[in-house]
Amino acid sequence: MTTSTDAQVRLRSTIADEAIAAVNVARARRSITPALTLEDYRNEAYRQILIDLRAKEIYPEDITRPADLTDAEASLTIALACEAASQRGQSQQQTTVDLFAQEGLRWREMYSRAIAKASPIDGLKGTSVSFRWDRG
Question: Are strands 124-126 and 133-135 parallel, antiparallel or unpaired?
């Protein structure tokens, strides 16, 4: 289960598709199959969000407003795709790799802000980037 759709991720940026294409080209060169999809990255983003929430004693069964995690999930999805593409190392297209690394950092920062502001539980709201949760 995820809280965002491919379309919602693409509305924020198309760089995730470019990053995934770059990753899949590298995977194909190494005969690694199957190709990765945006859905694969969304699933991983949701898994990591649940881990982050669990660290704050918020469990999946506590989440009553999953839509409040959509921005965080979309941002993390883009960050993960860009980070994966930037880890390809040196290449002839070094500027592209650098762009993915920069975008990965930017979207990871956006994720941190989005998860801190998210209110996935009725009656609780995120209060800051420190990811502290308060009542009311």
Answer: antiparallel
Residue with tokens 């993390």: 76
Tokens matching residue 37: 């999809």
Beta strands in 15-123 (DSSP E): none
- 90 conformational bin, left if phi > 0, alpha if psi -120 to 50, beta if neither: beta
The rounded distance, in Å, linking the Cα atoms of 90 and 94 is 6
* Cβ atoms < 10 Å from Cβ of 48: 18
Query: Which of 113, 112, 136 minimizes the C-alpha distance to 124?
Result: 136
Task: Give per-residue pLDDT as tens, 35-51.
Answer: 999 999 999 999 999 99
